Amino acid sequence: MQRKVLRRVADSITITDNRTGESLEIPFENGGISAAQWGKLLPGVWFYDPGLVSTAACESSITYLDGDEGILRYRGYPIEQLAEQSTYLEVAYLLLNGDLPTPAEYDVWQHEVTHHTFIHENVRKRFLEGFHYDAHPMGMLVSAVAALSTFYLDAKDIFDIESRNKQIIRLIAKMPTLAAAAHRFSVGMPFVYPDNSLKFTSNFLSMMWKTAEPRFDANPALARALDVLFILHADHEQNCSTTAMRVVGSSHADPYSATAAAAAALYGPRHGGANEAVIRMLTDIGSLDNVEPFIASVKEGSGGRLQGFGHRVYKSYDPRAQIIKKTADDVFEITGKNPLLDIALKLEEIALSDEYFTSRKLYPNVDFYSGLIYQAMGFPLEMFPVLFAIPRTAGWLAHWQEMLDQDSKIARPRQLYIGDDARDYVPIGAR
Ligand code: ACO
User: What is the pLDDT of residues 119-146, one digit of tens each?
Assistant: First the structure.
């Protein structure tokens, strides 16, 4: 395709329909151009963009991401500072409200979330316990979140701010309870009720691991490491699950139904399942001697992809991966080193100095190390996407709320039809 500069006008683009010779100048706004403006020149001509790779589907002020520079900020705050100094609950408040809370606001927020952690007994007894004995905990979580909409009928009042806030608090508070309940069911252990004297991640660890002791006190360093992981996973702008949240939310479905849709999107191995794939890959490699042959097989195409490497947006490095490496050290000091770590380190070292990976800008992403940490902390592989869904709920809800406040349109993309032309129905006996 030949590119011709027609004239230089700052901050705008001019397009010409060569069929008619008509031109239109469209200003750049916030780094993009309006497709509605484009449509004035080309009505009925659709952008063909599978995977929405070149489409900005909304304006958002929640998360800023620069994939070339490896920058990630929530509401303007660098992820490095938040991971170092903040807590998941504070970050959830920030994502949802736009600013960090004052001490008084934080007290109220923490109290509200802590006091909405219980789930209706029917959710546990009738619903969760009705699953097949080997049900995947993520499938259970997706279904249980959707089922919550039948318990909170006021959730349909999505433009009633008081009701909306109540559902947001309920969802953030109940996700760990549902997640732990799904795990306990899948291993045949009795359900543990939330302990409201505990902080968010300590409470979750208590619901996961408590056995006969009257109170489960998680190792503070492990609870903090989980909190850091939750901060890193709290939002990532318009990823697949957040887009699902916005799309379903755009029909004005209640937030439980929209969150269930987002969690379902996260369930897929291309999204929330990558850290599980990393562990399976490292286990298959098995020893340091097999690392080089494995890399060779990836390069020649027979070994599949190097899981935990590459990212649709980050093309220099994933800032979350750098933070997570340090968190891994903190966790391994307590749990002992994950035996797969050495294989991971060698893989990383070889890949980062190999032209195949560097020329394609493939660097470790957040999932390369998160699975090693979760495994060292004792979480089964099936819980990995569930551990992702708990904190991402804050991001999903922040985007859902932003979308409602923007009075956005229902999501309804167009298609390029490539099927048959009109043809007449043939009765079954005549085919
Ligand atoms: N290992 C080996 N080669 C890779 C990898 C990888 N992990 N990722 C991309 N490539 C290669 C592709 O084969 C392709 O090569 P080619 O140009 O010779 O055909 C090139 O790099 C570009 O790949 P695309 O698939 O076009 O890149 P895209 O941006 O669409 O994919 C993705 C990003 C899906 C994350 C990809 O890098 C991947 O599959 N990684 C492994 C899975 C993974 O770690 N996912 C977690 C993502 S982070 C998250 O969801 C939280």
Answer: 999 988 888 889 998 999 999 999 999 9
